[in-house]
Amino acid sequence: MVIARSLVRAARDAGYDARLVVTPDFGFGRQTRSYLANLRYDVRRIEGRTVDQVISLRYPSYAVRHPRHVCWLNHTMREYYDRWPAFSSSISAPNRAKESMRRVLTHAADRYLLGRHVRRVVAQSQTIQRRLLDDFGIRAEVLLPPPPQRPYRCDGYGPEILVVSRLTPHKRVDLAIRAIAEPAAQRVRLLIVGDGDCRAELERLAATLQVAERARFLGAIDDRALVDHLARCRAVCFTPIEEDYGFVTVEAFASRKAVVTCRDSGGPVELVADGESGFVCDPTPSAIAGAMARLVDDRALAERLGAGGAARASAMSWRAVVRALVSV
């Protein structure tokens, strides 16, 4: 939704009459209903006005009908694609059989919708570009989303490393918690922003590793508070597995903060230049501990890498994004 709102604002700034339309999504287990509802959603006219072009971002919205339809893809339903092995192994055999059938139907629907239904597909990262090629044989260009249009700033380089994430397994926040239990990271303190199904489990992990006093959970916070924490932290640690894109990275860069990520983190690795705007580590607690400790122990290093990230963010433009997406 952050990308959608930023895109609408940028389009309006460029002189277009842009509207955000939230299409039906009935949730997991009701995917067929969601796809059919979107397919019946004719967006050629909205509120009595003719719509010249539609830009969709993810499933199931790329099923809406319009002759000038560009999909700037963030992701398909990943439980039926790259996350299928982990997802299928977590459910019972009867449910696995049912979900396998839904997976086949979803693949067929996506192959048609992305291959023939929309006029053009653009990927939001090289990671998504690769999935489009592997899953559907679609060759898409890449158009990276710039930082959201928020008043990012840098108020200095405080002592804490900021972790911003939904607390779910594939975000791997446990890696940061395990990292500060390593001998190299005894001086590292974490501020963990976000909520999710794994919060209680992660809090127990911090207690078990005896690092609870150095891993503070802030829960869900509003945009203003997030901008404040980004402005004051030493750096950001973001270590998901095969992330589609990861706005956290460019938000950190816009706040002149370095990012610690992992080699298998997907989208963030496309943005972080190792040793120039952050550190790209092996996905192990010891490697992440070493990177975070370097930033905490050396403020000048954090400032230098933060400046590198800021240069990367400043080169990204919503105006250029709008120009590329409307040039069908």
Specify the helix fraction band.
40-55%
The CATH topology label of the largest domain is Rossmann fold
* CATH architecture type of the largest domain: 3-Layer(aba) Sandwich
Number of helical stretches of at least 4 residues: 13
Give the overall shape, derived from the CA principal axes. Answer: globular
- Between the first and last Cα atoms, what is the distance in angstroms? 23 Å
* Low-confidence segments: none
In total, how many beta strands? 12
What is the CATH H-level superfamily of the largest domain? Glycogen Phosphorylase B
Order of helices and strands: HHEEEEHHEHEEHEHEHEHEHEHHH
Portion in beta strands: 5-15%
Radius of gyration: 21 Å
Largest sheet: 6 strands, parallel
Helix-strand makeup class? alpha/beta
Kindly state the mean pLDDT as a whole number?
Answer: 94
Given this structure, which CATH class of the largest domain is correct? Alpha Beta
Supply the number of structural domains. 2
If strands are numbered along the chain, what order do they take across the biggest sheet? Answer: 9-8-7-10-11-12
